[in-house]
Amino acid sequence: MQAAAWGGMAEGHSVLAILPIFHGFGLGVCVNAAFMAGGKSILVPMFSAEIVAKLLRTKRPNLLVGVPTLYEALARAPSLSKADLSCLRATFSGADTLPRPVKERFEKLVAERGSRVKLLEGYGLTEAVTAIMAMPLTEYREGSIGIPFPDMLAKICRVGTEEALAPGEEGEICVSGPAVMLGYLDDPEATRATLRVHADGRTWLHTGDLGKMDADGFFYFTVRLKRMIKSSGFNVYPAQIEAVLYQHPLIAEACVVGVPDLAQMERVHAFVVLKDLAQANPDTETQLIEHCRARLIKWSCPREIEFRAELPKTRVGKIDYKVLVQEHTAQHDNQGYAG
């Protein structure tokens, strides 16, 4: 009900269910929320930009919820360049960091096609079943994932502790409320590590996500703790580097990971898909690295860029960075640490 109210859904409205409904995000937001509001859920048989573009034209949904890669693909879909998109009342991106260039390209498309909708961010995780916070339709703060839904609580704690931090300080996002899971099936140790009773007597879910909260209570996601790259003692955030890569006109998709390095512990390795695959060559690699060096500190710049025809995706449609790390590791297994 909260997701429906947040998205302004009412009787007669429809949501395009792009996300798989075996996933909490897809089931909770794209199906249950629509039905609770008396609306309609339009099921997408298979994820592809072509199918989604066709359904946008023919079924004219009012609410669109997806991952950043979907919005990037839609912004580049030729079939939408002349479509009437005035039906869209709200669009939300979740499950991964939304690069600013992707947001801008999608908003430019819908503005040209008759809608004033803004692409806003939300936040949720499997352990809390569905979306638990989002940017209000009437607000926008650069990079913010919004504020918690009315019956959910959130705070920032010092990593590894239950100590709440002041606004502006970076720590682990913790949430509490009815959406939080009861625990992991047959894994009491993991449950104890993730669900902790704090001094206020509430059970808090330690998400494993780094973020901040501003003075007005708006939250900002930084990075999954497991994705943080440690390079020469510095914390390096993949999403920051990916956002810079997306600013380059040659880039269609990008994913940044940390790989072992004898001198730096980890170094930054970028996987990219170019809009024109024929430009995948050493000169382009140099150009992209120089693009990053002009905008990032030394430790955050990719040491190498690996061109791919496509990047692996999870079933939700996110770029699967874990598969890329596994593939890189397998490829370099016989070499040990790179120098």
UniProtKB/TrEMBL annotation:
Pfam families xref list: AMP-binding (PF00501), AMP-binding_C (PF13193)
Ranges of residues in domain AMP-dependent synthetase/ligase: 9-185
GO MF annotation terms: CoA-ligase activity
Record-annotated AMP-binding enzyme C-terminal domain positions: 240-318
Membrane-spanning segments: 15-37
Keywords: Ligase, Membrane, Transmembrane, Transmembrane helix
Family recorded in the similarity comment: Belongs to the ATP-dependent AMP-binding enzyme family.
UniProt protein name: Long-chain-fatty-acid--CoA ligase
Organism field: mine drainage metagenome
